[in-house]
Amino acid sequence: MKIGVTCYPTVGGSGTVATELGLAIARRGHEVHFICYALPYRLGRVPPGVTFHEVTVPAYPLFQYPPYSLALASQMADAVRNHGIELLHVHYAIPHAISAYLAREILGGGPKLVVTLHGTDITVVGADPSFLPIVRLGIERADVVTAVSQSLADETHERLGVKREIEVIPNFVDPDRYDRDFAAAHRRRLSPDGAPLLVHASNFRPVKRVLDVLEIFRLVHERVPSHLAMVGDGPDRPAAERFARDAGLAHRVEFLGNVSPVEGVMGAGDVFLLPSSEESFGLAALEAMACGVPVVASNAGGIPELVVHGRGGFIFPVGATETMAACIVTLLSNPHELVRQRELARRRAVENFAVAKVVDRYEDLYHRLLGA
Ligand code: GMT
Protein backbone atom coordinates (compact mmCIF):
# COMPACT_ATOMS: atom_id res chain seq x y z
CA MET A 1 0.00 0.00 0.00
CA LYS A 2 1.05 3.61 -0.50
CA ILE A 3 -0.01 5.79 2.41
CA GLY A 4 0.29 9.56 2.86
CA VAL A 5 0.47 10.82 6.46
CA THR A 6 -0.08 14.39 7.61
CA CYS A 7 0.38 15.53 11.20
CA TYR A 8 1.80 18.38 13.24
CA PRO A 9 5.53 17.65 13.28
CA THR A 10 6.09 19.32 16.65
CA VAL A 11 6.41 17.64 20.04
CA GLY A 12 2.97 16.40 21.06
CA GLY A 13 0.79 13.34 21.29
CA SER A 14 -0.85 13.47 17.86
CA GLY A 15 2.50 13.95 16.10
CA THR A 16 3.99 11.09 18.11
CA VAL A 17 1.14 8.71 17.31
CA ALA A 18 1.09 9.67 13.61
CA THR A 19 4.85 9.28 13.22
CA GLU A 20 5.16 6.01 15.13
CA LEU A 21 2.20 4.60 13.20
CA GLY A 22 3.73 5.66 9.86
CA LEU A 23 7.08 4.10 10.80
CA ALA A 24 5.42 0.86 11.94
CA ILE A 25 3.42 0.66 8.69
CA ALA A 26 6.63 1.22 6.67
CA ARG A 27 8.38 -1.56 8.65
CA ARG A 28 5.58 -3.84 7.49
CA GLY A 29 6.66 -3.24 3.90
CA HIS A 30 4.30 -0.44 2.85
CA GLU A 31 5.33 2.87 1.29
CA VAL A 32 4.76 5.85 3.62
CA HIS A 33 4.88 9.52 2.61
CA PHE A 34 4.94 12.13 5.39
CA ILE A 35 3.46 15.41 4.10
CA CYS A 36 4.14 18.03 6.79
CA TYR A 37 5.54 21.55 7.20
CA ALA A 38 8.67 20.19 8.91
CA LEU A 39 10.32 16.85 9.54
CA PRO A 40 8.33 15.17 12.35
CA TYR A 41 10.42 15.40 15.52
CA ARG A 42 9.86 11.73 16.29
CA LEU A 43 11.11 10.36 12.93
CA GLY A 44 14.51 9.23 14.24
CA ARG A 45 15.91 6.25 12.32
CA VAL A 46 13.93 6.17 9.11
CA PRO A 47 13.27 2.70 7.70
CA PRO A 48 13.30 2.08 3.93
CA GLY A 49 10.06 3.09 2.27
CA VAL A 50 9.61 6.41 4.07
CA THR A 51 9.61 9.68 2.12
CA PHE A 52 9.19 13.23 3.38
CA HIS A 53 7.38 15.98 1.45
CA GLU A 54 7.82 19.43 2.93
CA VAL A 55 4.89 21.83 2.79
CA THR A 56 6.14 25.35 2.21
CA VAL A 57 3.87 28.34 2.56
CA PRO A 58 5.05 31.29 0.47
CA ALA A 59 5.25 34.60 2.29
CA TYR A 60 3.49 37.57 0.67
CA PRO A 61 3.01 41.01 2.25
CA LEU A 62 -0.75 40.76 1.77
CA PHE A 63 -0.99 37.61 3.87
CA GLN A 64 -1.35 38.50 7.52
CA TYR A 65 -2.14 34.79 8.00
CA PRO A 66 -0.20 32.60 5.53
CA PRO A 67 -2.68 30.03 4.12
CA TYR A 68 -1.06 26.80 5.37
CA SER A 69 -4.19 24.73 4.74
CA LEU A 70 -4.20 25.61 1.05
CA ALA A 71 -0.47 24.98 0.55
CA LEU A 72 -0.94 21.65 2.32
CA ALA A 73 -3.85 20.68 0.02
CA SER A 74 -1.74 21.48 -3.07
CA GLN A 75 1.24 19.52 -1.70
CA MET A 76 -1.00 16.56 -0.87
CA ALA A 77 -2.48 16.56 -4.40
CA ASP A 78 1.02 16.77 -5.87
CA ALA A 79 2.36 13.89 -3.74
CA VAL A 80 -0.68 11.72 -4.57
CA ARG A 81 -0.35 12.40 -8.31
CA ASN A 82 3.41 11.86 -8.51
CA HIS A 83 3.77 8.91 -6.14
CA GLY A 84 0.54 7.01 -6.60
CA ILE A 85 -0.52 7.46 -2.96
CA GLU A 86 -3.71 5.47 -2.46
CA LEU A 87 -4.79 6.70 0.96
CA LEU A 88 -4.27 9.91 2.93
CA HIS A 89 -4.33 9.51 6.70
CA VAL A 90 -4.47 12.86 8.47
CA HIS A 91 -4.03 13.35 12.21
CA TYR A 92 -5.69 16.27 14.03
CA ALA A 93 -8.74 17.57 12.19
CA ILE A 94 -7.74 21.23 11.94
CA PRO A 95 -6.96 22.00 9.17
CA HIS A 96 -5.75 18.61 7.95
CA ALA A 97 -9.17 17.06 7.33
CA ILE A 98 -10.34 19.86 5.06
CA SER A 99 -6.95 20.08 3.27
CA ALA A 100 -7.19 16.36 2.44
CA TYR A 101 -10.73 16.85 1.17
CA LEU A 102 -9.54 19.77 -1.02
CA ALA A 103 -6.65 17.66 -2.34
CA ARG A 104 -9.12 15.04 -3.47
CA GLU A 105 -11.25 17.73 -5.12
CA ILE A 106 -8.16 19.02 -6.96
CA LEU A 107 -7.51 15.51 -8.24
CA GLY A 108 -11.15 14.93 -9.15
CA GLY A 109 -11.26 11.82 -6.97
CA GLY A 110 -8.51 9.44 -6.02
CA PRO A 111 -7.13 8.65 -2.59
CA LYS A 112 -9.19 7.32 0.29
CA LEU A 113 -9.30 9.68 3.27
CA VAL A 114 -8.86 8.68 6.92
CA VAL A 115 -9.13 11.34 9.63
CA THR A 116 -7.97 10.62 13.18
CA LEU A 117 -9.33 12.96 15.84
CA HIS A 118 -6.94 13.54 18.73
CA GLY A 119 -8.64 15.81 21.25
CA THR A 120 -8.35 19.57 21.27
CA ASP A 121 -9.12 19.55 17.53
CA ILE A 122 -12.66 18.76 18.75
CA THR A 123 -12.97 19.73 22.41
CA VAL A 124 -11.23 23.11 22.36
CA VAL A 125 -10.56 24.53 18.90
CA GLY A 126 -12.98 22.41 16.86
CA ALA A 127 -15.96 23.40 18.99
CA ASP A 128 -15.17 27.10 18.50
CA PRO A 129 -17.76 28.65 16.16
CA SER A 130 -15.01 30.02 13.91
CA PHE A 131 -13.94 26.48 13.01
CA LEU A 132 -16.92 24.25 13.75
CA PRO A 133 -18.59 24.20 10.29
CA ILE A 134 -15.35 23.54 8.41
CA VAL A 135 -14.22 20.84 10.88
CA ARG A 136 -17.61 19.15 10.60
CA LEU A 137 -17.40 19.21 6.78
CA GLY A 138 -13.90 17.68 6.83
CA ILE A 139 -15.10 14.95 9.17
CA GLU A 140 -18.22 14.24 7.13
CA ARG A 141 -16.35 13.97 3.81
CA ALA A 142 -13.70 11.48 5.01
CA ASP A 143 -14.08 7.78 4.17
CA VAL A 144 -13.31 6.72 7.74
CA VAL A 145 -13.01 8.78 10.91
CA THR A 146 -11.29 7.41 13.98
CA ALA A 147 -11.01 8.83 17.49
CA VAL A 148 -8.44 7.91 20.13
CA SER A 149 -11.10 7.24 22.80
CA GLN A 150 -14.82 6.58 23.11
CA SER A 151 -15.11 9.78 25.08
CA LEU A 152 -13.73 11.78 22.15
CA ALA A 153 -16.03 10.00 19.67
CA ASP A 154 -19.01 10.87 21.90
CA GLU A 155 -17.92 14.50 22.24
CA THR A 156 -17.56 14.78 18.46
CA HIS A 157 -21.15 13.61 18.03
CA GLU A 158 -22.50 15.81 20.82
CA ARG A 159 -20.52 19.03 20.48
CA LEU A 160 -20.05 19.16 16.71
CA GLY A 161 -23.38 17.58 15.78
CA VAL A 162 -21.56 15.03 13.63
CA LYS A 163 -23.88 12.13 12.75
CA ARG A 164 -21.56 9.64 11.08
CA GLU A 165 -19.91 6.59 12.63
CA ILE A 166 -16.57 7.17 14.36
CA GLU A 167 -14.35 4.18 14.97
CA VAL A 168 -12.42 4.13 18.24
CA ILE A 169 -8.76 3.09 17.95
CA PRO A 170 -6.82 3.90 21.12
CA ASN A 171 -3.31 5.28 21.21
CA PHE A 172 -0.41 2.93 21.69
CA VAL A 173 3.07 2.67 23.11
CA ASP A 174 6.18 0.64 22.36
CA PRO A 175 6.96 -1.02 25.71
CA ASP A 176 10.54 -1.70 24.56
CA ARG A 177 11.44 1.99 24.35
CA TYR A 178 11.88 2.07 28.13
CA ASP A 179 15.59 1.86 29.02
CA ARG A 180 16.12 1.11 32.73
CA ASP A 181 19.78 2.26 32.86
CA PHE A 182 18.99 5.54 31.12
CA ALA A 183 16.10 6.18 33.54
CA ALA A 184 18.35 5.34 36.51
CA ALA A 185 20.87 7.94 35.32
CA HIS A 186 18.11 10.58 35.15
CA ARG A 187 16.93 9.53 38.59
CA ARG A 188 20.38 10.05 40.15
CA ARG A 189 20.47 13.55 38.68
CA LEU A 190 16.87 14.54 39.54
CA SER A 191 16.83 13.08 43.03
CA PRO A 192 20.43 13.12 44.27
CA ASP A 193 19.27 12.44 47.86
CA GLY A 194 17.15 9.46 46.78
CA ALA A 195 13.85 11.12 47.82
CA PRO A 196 10.69 10.23 45.83
CA LEU A 197 10.39 11.81 42.41
CA LEU A 198 7.10 13.01 40.88
CA VAL A 199 6.96 13.70 37.13
CA HIS A 200 4.68 15.70 34.85
CA ALA A 201 5.00 16.05 31.05
CA SER A 202 2.84 18.21 28.80
CA ASN A 203 2.66 21.21 26.50
CA PHE A 204 1.88 23.48 29.51
CA ARG A 205 -1.39 24.65 27.99
CA PRO A 206 -4.28 25.75 30.28
CA VAL A 207 -6.07 22.36 29.88
CA LYS A 208 -3.09 20.65 31.55
CA ARG A 209 -3.61 22.60 34.81
CA VAL A 210 0.11 22.75 35.56
CA LEU A 211 -0.55 24.90 38.64
CA ASP A 212 -2.50 21.93 40.04
CA VAL A 213 0.62 19.84 39.46
CA LEU A 214 2.65 22.32 41.53
CA GLU A 215 -0.02 22.52 44.25
CA ILE A 216 -0.22 18.71 44.51
CA PHE A 217 3.55 18.58 44.75
CA ARG A 218 3.57 21.29 47.45
CA LEU A 219 1.10 19.29 49.55
CA VAL A 220 3.00 16.01 49.07
CA HIS A 221 6.35 17.59 49.84
CA GLU A 222 5.01 18.93 53.17
CA ARG A 223 4.44 15.33 54.30
CA VAL A 224 7.04 13.37 52.30
CA PRO A 225 10.08 15.38 51.13
CA SER A 226 10.20 14.81 47.37
CA HIS A 227 11.33 16.18 44.01
CA LEU A 228 9.32 17.16 40.95
CA ALA A 229 10.43 16.99 37.31
CA MET A 230 8.42 19.13 34.87
CA VAL A 231 8.94 18.02 31.26
CA GLY A 232 7.80 20.09 28.27
CA ASP A 233 7.17 23.69 27.47
CA GLY A 234 4.29 26.02 26.70
CA PRO A 235 2.34 29.12 27.70
CA ASP A 236 1.83 28.26 31.39
CA ARG A 237 5.46 27.45 32.11
CA PRO A 238 6.35 30.95 33.42
CA ALA A 239 3.40 30.84 35.87
CA ALA A 240 4.46 27.37 37.01
CA GLU A 241 8.06 28.50 37.55
CA ARG A 242 6.78 31.52 39.50
CA PHE A 243 4.62 29.26 41.69
CA ALA A 244 7.62 27.08 42.48
CA ARG A 245 9.73 30.13 43.41
CA ASP A 246 6.97 31.80 45.50
CA ALA A 247 6.28 28.55 47.38
CA GLY A 248 9.99 28.22 48.18
CA LEU A 249 10.16 25.00 46.17
CA ALA A 250 12.48 26.07 43.36
CA HIS A 251 15.30 23.87 44.68
CA ARG A 252 12.99 20.80 44.59
CA VAL A 253 11.38 21.41 41.16
CA GLU A 254 13.27 21.01 37.91
CA PHE A 255 11.86 22.43 34.64
CA LEU A 256 13.53 20.37 31.94
CA GLY A 257 11.83 21.69 28.78
CA ASN A 258 11.30 19.29 25.90
CA VAL A 259 13.60 16.32 26.42
CA SER A 260 14.06 13.39 24.12
CA PRO A 261 13.44 10.57 24.63
CA VAL A 262 10.84 11.54 27.20
CA GLU A 263 10.76 7.97 28.59
CA GLY A 264 14.18 8.61 30.18
CA VAL A 265 12.72 11.09 32.67
CA MET A 266 9.34 9.39 32.98
CA GLY A 267 10.93 6.07 33.88
CA ALA A 268 12.92 7.82 36.60
CA GLY A 269 9.78 8.79 38.51
CA ASP A 270 7.72 7.19 41.26
CA VAL A 271 4.43 8.79 40.26
CA PHE A 272 3.26 10.58 37.10
CA LEU A 273 0.80 13.48 37.43
CA LEU A 274 -1.85 14.41 34.85
CA PRO A 275 -4.58 16.55 36.47
CA SER A 276 -5.93 17.96 33.14
CA SER A 277 -9.33 19.54 32.65
CA GLU A 278 -9.59 18.08 29.12
CA GLU A 279 -7.74 14.99 27.94
CA SER A 280 -9.03 12.86 25.10
CA PHE A 281 -6.62 10.04 25.90
CA GLY A 282 -3.47 11.04 27.82
CA LEU A 283 -0.61 9.56 25.81
CA ALA A 284 1.95 10.88 28.30
CA ALA A 285 0.23 8.88 31.05
CA LEU A 286 0.37 5.75 28.91
CA GLU A 287 4.10 6.32 28.29
CA ALA A 288 4.65 6.65 32.04
CA MET A 289 2.69 3.44 32.70
CA ALA A 290 4.76 1.59 30.09
CA CYS A 291 7.83 2.63 32.12
CA GLY A 292 6.20 1.10 35.21
CA VAL A 293 5.22 4.43 36.74
CA PRO A 294 1.72 4.68 38.27
CA VAL A 295 -0.40 7.66 37.31
CA VAL A 296 -2.42 10.07 39.44
CA ALA A 297 -4.81 11.84 37.09
CA SER A 298 -8.14 13.60 36.75
CA ASN A 299 -11.18 11.74 35.45
CA ALA A 300 -11.39 14.05 32.42
CA GLY A 301 -12.33 12.88 28.92
CA GLY A 302 -10.77 9.57 27.92
CA ILE A 303 -8.46 9.18 30.93
CA PRO A 304 -10.78 6.62 32.61
CA GLU A 305 -10.49 4.46 29.47
CA LEU A 306 -6.74 4.32 30.07
CA VAL A 307 -6.36 4.48 33.84
CA VAL A 308 -8.30 1.97 35.95
CA HIS A 309 -8.53 3.37 39.47
CA GLY A 310 -6.41 1.32 41.87
CA ARG A 311 -4.72 -0.72 39.14
CA GLY A 312 -1.56 1.11 38.16
CA GLY A 313 -3.16 4.49 38.54
CA PHE A 314 -5.70 6.60 40.40
CA ILE A 315 -8.29 9.05 39.09
CA PHE A 316 -10.02 11.90 40.88
CA PRO A 317 -12.30 14.79 39.93
CA VAL A 318 -10.67 17.70 38.10
CA GLY A 319 -9.18 20.13 40.64
CA ALA A 320 -9.16 17.67 43.57
CA THR A 321 -5.58 18.55 44.43
CA GLU A 322 -5.83 17.63 48.13
CA THR A 323 -7.22 14.15 47.43
CA MET A 324 -4.63 13.57 44.74
CA ALA A 325 -1.85 14.63 47.12
CA ALA A 326 -3.24 12.40 49.91
CA CYS A 327 -3.27 9.43 47.52
CA ILE A 328 0.37 10.05 46.57
CA VAL A 329 1.44 10.39 50.21
CA THR A 330 -0.22 7.03 51.00
CA LEU A 331 1.50 5.42 48.03
CA LEU A 332 4.94 6.83 48.82
CA SER A 333 4.58 5.75 52.44
CA ASN A 334 3.91 2.15 51.46
CA PRO A 335 6.81 0.78 49.40
CA HIS A 336 5.16 -2.64 48.83
CA GLU A 337 2.04 -1.03 47.44
CA LEU A 338 4.14 1.29 45.25
CA VAL A 339 5.95 -1.71 43.74
CA ARG A 340 2.58 -3.44 43.15
CA GLN A 341 1.17 -0.34 41.45
CA ARG A 342 4.30 -0.08 39.29
CA GLU A 343 3.79 -3.63 38.07
CA LEU A 344 0.08 -3.08 37.45
CA ALA A 345 0.80 0.11 35.46
CA ARG A 346 3.32 -1.63 33.23
CA ARG A 347 1.03 -4.63 32.76
CA ARG A 348 -1.96 -2.50 31.76
CA ALA A 349 0.13 -0.62 29.19
CA VAL A 350 1.68 -3.76 27.71
CA GLU A 351 -1.49 -5.88 27.66
CA ASN A 352 -3.91 -3.27 26.36
CA PHE A 353 -1.97 -0.62 24.45
CA ALA A 354 1.08 -2.29 22.89
CA VAL A 355 2.05 -0.96 19.48
CA ALA A 356 1.69 -4.18 17.43
CA LYS A 357 -2.01 -4.79 18.20
CA VAL A 358 -3.06 -1.21 17.57
CA VAL A 359 -1.05 -0.95 14.34
CA ASP A 360 -2.80 -4.17 13.21
CA ARG A 361 -6.10 -2.32 13.55
CA TYR A 362 -4.95 0.60 11.41
CA GLU A 363 -3.43 -1.74 8.82
CA ASP A 364 -6.70 -3.70 8.64
CA LEU A 365 -8.55 -0.43 8.20
CA TYR A 366 -6.30 0.57 5.28
CA HIS A 367 -6.73 -2.88 3.66
CA ARG A 368 -10.49 -2.68 4.12
CA LEU A 369 -10.64 0.75 2.44
CA LEU A 370 -8.38 -0.18 -0.42
CA GLY A 371 -10.09 -3.49 -0.97
CA ALA A 372 -6.74 -5.23 -0.63
O1 GMT B 1 -3.70 20.00 22.26
C1 GMT B 1 -3.04 19.13 22.79
O2 GMT B 1 -3.00 18.89 23.97
C2 GMT B 1 -2.15 18.37 21.91
C3 GMT B 1 -2.79 17.16 21.33
C4 GMT B 1 -1.78 16.69 20.33
O3 GMT B 1 -1.95 17.01 19.17
O4 GMT B 1 -0.81 16.09 20.73
O5 GMT B 1 -3.05 16.17 22.35
C5 GMT B 1 -4.17 15.36 22.16
O6 GMT B 1 -3.80 14.20 21.43
C6 GMT B 1 -3.04 13.20 22.12
C7 GMT B 1 -2.74 12.06 21.16
O7 GMT B 1 -3.89 11.42 20.71
C8 GMT B 1 -3.82 12.72 23.35
O8 GMT B 1 -3.09 11.73 24.04
C9 GMT B 1 -4.08 13.92 24.27
O9 GMT B 1 -4.88 13.47 25.34
C10 GMT B 1 -4.81 15.01 23.51
N1 GMT B 1 -4.87 16.22 24.34
C11 GMT B 1 -6.02 16.66 24.85
O10 GMT B 1 -7.09 16.14 24.65
C12 GMT B 1 -5.89 17.86 25.72
Fold blueprint:
Elements: E1 2-6, H1 13-27, E2 31-36, E3 50-54, H2 68-83, E4 87-91, H3 93-107, E5 112-117, H4 120-123, H5 132-141, E6 144-147, H6 150-160, E7 167-168, H7 180-190, E8 197-202, H8 210-223, E9 227-232, H9 237-246, E10 253-257, H10 263-266, E11 271-274, H11 283-290, E12 295-298, H12 303-306, E13 313-316, H13 321-332, H14 335-353, H15 355-370
Parallel strand pairs: 1-2, 1-4, 2-3, 4-5, 5-6, 6-7, 8-9, 8-11, 9-10, 11-12, 12-13
The structure holds ligand GMT.
Ligand GMT is lined by residues 12-14, 17, 92, 118-120, 148, 171, 203, 205, 207, 278-283.
Please give a structural write-up.
There is one protein chain. By secondary structure, this protein is α/β, with parallel strands linked by helices. It folds into two domains: 2-172 and 354-370, 3-Layer(aba) Sandwich (Rossmann fold), CATH 3.40.50; 175-353, 3-Layer(aba) Sandwich (Rossmann fold), CATH 3.40.50. The protein is 45% helix and 17% strand. It has 15 helices and 13 strands. The chain has helices at residues 13-27, 68-83, 93-107, 120-123, 132-141, 150-160, 180-190, 210-223, 237-246, 263-266, 283-290, 303-306, 321-332, 335-353, 355-370; strands at residues 2-6, 31-36, 50-54, 87-91, 112-117, 144-147, 167-168, 197-202, 227-232, 253-257, 271-274, 295-298, 313-316. The strands form two sheets. A seven-stranded parallel β-sheet has the order 3-2-1-4-5-6-7, sandwiched between helices. The longest helix has 19 residues, at 335-353. It is globular and about 65 Å long. The structure holds ligand GMT. The site of ligand GMT has 19 residues, from helix 1.
